Amino acid sequence: MARPPGGGATVSRRGVLRAAGIGGLSMLAGAACASSGQATQVAVVWSSVELDEFRAVLRGYPHPVEVVSAGDDIDAFLRARHRAGTSPDVAILSRPGLVTDYAQRDWLTPLPEKLAGHYAEGWSDLLRHKGVLYGAWVKAAFKSLFWYLPTVVDAPPSTWDELKDLVGRMGRAGGSTPAPLAVGAADGWVLTDWLENVLACLAPPNFYDALSSGRPRWGEPPVRDSLNLLAELWSLPGAFIGGPGRALLTQFDESVIEVTSRRAGMVFEADFVQAYAAPFREPGTPEPQTFRFPSVNGVQPLVVGGDAAVVLHGSPRGQDLVQYLVDAQSFEPWIKAGGYLSPNLGVSPDRYPDTLRRRLAQEMRDAKVLRFDLSDRLVGSFTGADGVGIWRILQDFFRAVTARNADRAGVIDATTRALNQAARQAGGLP
Question: What stretch or stretches form a coiled coil here (predicted)?
């Protein structure tokens, strides 16, 4: 993974992967790409390293495939292609909310129910509309990790109170040690991941699911308590390099570099941090290690994300490709290359070449509290993008609650009102 576009503009997680600027670029992949038959077209959110690894996966497919990297906003890409009557055969989406949206619009072809058996209970339910399966998972993201430097943090915290105590102590030490936390708050999705992990501890599953379905219940205690815990941590003196104002100008990839360069001791984010850390690690410094997101009130969360394949406009070629992608052997090239986690139960944790991936894969199977990324499940504008939806609301919350002499209760009131209003607007409610 490489550095995203410069400047202070926010970017999506996919934006930070676009090293080569290849949005919209088409290319053939697959063993038979020289065939005269018509290629199956698949639109993906991946680029750079991820796109290269996906192309390696497709080399095992016996028919020609044309891969289109759709850029940061695959929703806008697919809507434009639909209006033009040129939809791809397959799309790979990182947001289950889009699967629901497209199924409601009758843009998708149902998939065989037997494909649901490849995944743990609950995963395929996110890809159903009115009980019908419309998507199949092809990649997972483990979103409950802290990455830290063992030379800076010798005793990783296991509870929220221990994390808060550690951040407080490191913050009080000032310039004599690295800052405790790096956070890419310029990218709103980073802040949603923080909230989702705390909320997964405090909210019962039915409440978390109610929020993901768009119900305006953001003013209720689980959300307010989660925001309060975040406010307590984020407002600790010295928590961030240069203060919270600078954190709001820091993009995700830069937050990782702040740890590898020893300016900060810890950064919270998913397993894909690993691909950033390696190129920017200073010579002679140890590799960043990981610990799970700390438990809150005795509950340790596991928030996951993922990418799912859907078939558009009744394409038989698309259905055949999706059948190939859900096979447990298909992603073997990417598994061996690293930087990949499979949601497929047929992929044993033993197949991963490194200890970290084996551990994460096993923890996904064993998790007692597992929730799927909430913002990715939301529909409409509420799901978040640069400057809109839940991304912007949480950036406003971060800015307000870390301000000097902030009225924490008042900020939480304003934030929950904004979240409820956004939920109503996305759901067409008054």
Answer: none
